[in-house]
Automatic annotation (TrEMBL):
Native organism taxonomy: Bacteria, Bacillati, Actinomycetota, Actinomycetes, Kitasatosporales
Membrane-spanning residues: 164-184, 196-213, 220-239
The organism's place on the tree of life at top rank: Bacteria
Biased composition (Pro residues): 31-44
Name of the molecule in the record: Endonuclease/exonuclease/phosphatase domain-containing protein
Length: 460
């Protein structure tokens, strides 16, 4: 009887199966187990398959080669596999379009687990450099970046801007300094400018404000010129030069021919404490003034539209011919300190028209005649009071103002503006003296007239 080949022989001793090699591949790995006493299996091919060309299309029928290194654990005596190439592929050019068929290279650093003895890779430095504090001082020795010089670019603009403002400022300075050269032949333009000459100073703060708004150094420097000229002309007028003392108080007032309350005006003047009171522009209400003032001033004289009331005797009264009708008088007041000649005058009014300009011919002629009477007066102690319808700066009144001195200029405080009473812009009512010393000068409160009363205290 035949014995099956796969049956064990009764004479063959049973053998203990050999323990499998831990380093040998098993059936689970897909390789047949080697025989116990057989030769070792051949070494696997560890050569890496050639990389396909970039952009080449892989063969659809090609079978990918297995990577035995990834599935087989290393043997004890086997050298470690070579380190993979960790060089980074070159970055594509900025703006270049990537190839649609290109295969991205794997990053071996992120796919390979770290070795037991290998230190962990250093963490990337993601900290942002600290920003310098605003306004902090640089460290010693640190090099500061060059700063642009803005002064070079800004300086020319500061001097180029505001040239028109500078031109106006210089024009105002020329008017102040050369007002006497402005001709009077056409519309009495010179007299008109000189009547309101102090108001040219208003141009200084206005132009300075414009210069500051424009940030113009040229305009700011130019504004200094009219400011200095105005101060030289009128700076002394702003000072308070009033002093105590005096022997005679004089008051003059244009009571306004159309004054609705002459009695009330007369009472206010009587309460002023004046020793000598001169009134201009008397009219139909003259009798009311005489009646109201009689209790305070026992002596008075009236010539036409002007009158003089006094606490002391008045004599030698006469009319001064300056106009076709009586508008001025001359009288002597016998004060305890001696006689004083008093002139009361109301020069003719002026008119202003955009076509004819400043019409002042009749006033100027009256001023010349009054000036002649003053020069002919023999007594040294002389006082001229009244409404001149012009300021002391008006050259047309120089025949009256040049031989006398202004009480307001010598002993007043400010300009002492008198007209119009509601908002005075000019001083056309004056007290001028010769041979006496003004101690103080001021304006009285408004009455029912369109002029303010003027007062002065004189030392005889």
């Amino acid at each position: 009887m035949a014995t099956p080949l796969d049956a064990p022989s009764a004479r063959q001793a049973p053998t203990t199966p050999a323990e499998p090699d831990a380093t040998a591949p098993t059936e689970a790995d897909g390789a047949p187990p080697p025989e116990a006493d057989g030769p070792p299996p051949p070494e696997p091919n560890t050569r890496t398959a050639p990389k396909p060309d970039a952009g080449a299309t892989p063969d659809a029928d090609a079978t990918p080669l297995p990577n035995p290194d990834a599935s087989r654990p290393p043997k004890p005596d086997e050298p470690p596999p070579p380190e993979p190439n960790t060089r980074t592929a070159p970055k594509p050019d900025a703006g270049a379009t990537p190839d649609a068929d290109a295969t991205p290279l794997p990053n071996p650093d992120t796919s390979r687990p770290p070795k037991p003895d290998e230190p962990p890779p250093p963490e990337p430095n993601t900290r942002t450099a600290p920003k310098p504090n605003a306004g902090a001082a640089p460290e010693p020795g640190a090099t500061r970046p060059p700063q642009p010089d803005t002064r070079t670019a800004a300086a020319p603009g500061v001097w180029r801007r505001g040239r028109a403002i500078a031109g106006i400022a210089l024009a105002a300075a020329l008017v102040m300094l050369g007002h006497a050269a402005i001709p009077n032949q056409v519309g009495h333009l010179g007299s008109l400018v000189e009547t309101f000459l102090p108001w040219t100073g208003l141009a200084v703060p206005l132009l300075l404000l414009c210069a500051l708004v424009r940030r113009s150094a040229t305009a700011a420097v130019a504004v200094v010129v009219p400011a200095l000229i105005w101060c030289s002309l009128f700076g002394g007028t702003l000072l308070d030069k009033r002093a105590d003392g005096g022997d005679l108080t004089v008051v003059t007032h244009n009571v306004d021919e159309h004054n609705p309350h002459p009695v009330r005006t007369a009472r206010a003047l009587a309460a002023s404490g004046a020793d000598v009171l001169a009134l201009e522009e008397l009219g139909a209400a003259t009798a009311e003034y005489e009646r109201t003032l009689a209790g305070t001033y026992p002596y008075h004289t009236v010539r036409g539209t002007v009158g003089l009331w006094s606490r002391y005797p008045v004599d030698a009264s006469r009319t001064v011919d300056i106009a076709p009708w009586p508008r001025a008088l001359r009288a002597v007041v016998r004060t305890p300190e001696g006689p004083v000649t008093v002139f009361v005058a109301h020069l003719l009014s002026v008119r202003f028209s955009p076509i004819s300009g400043f019409t002042a011919g009749a006033r100027d002629a009256a001023a010349h005649r009054l000036g002649a009477a003053l020069r002919a007066e023999p007594r040294e102690r002389t006082v001229l009071v009244g409404d001149f319808n012009g300021t002391l700066d008006d050259r047309a009144l120089s025949a009256v103002t040049s031989p006398l001195r202004s009480a307001q200029s010598e002993a007043g405080a400010g300009f002492g503006l008198t007209w119009p009473a509601s908002f005075p812009v000019a001083r056309i009512d004056h007290i001028l003296v010769r041979g006496v010393d003004p101690r103080s000068s001021w304006t009285l409160p408004a009455t029912d007239s369109d002029h303010l009363p003027v007062a002065a205290r004189l030392k005889l």
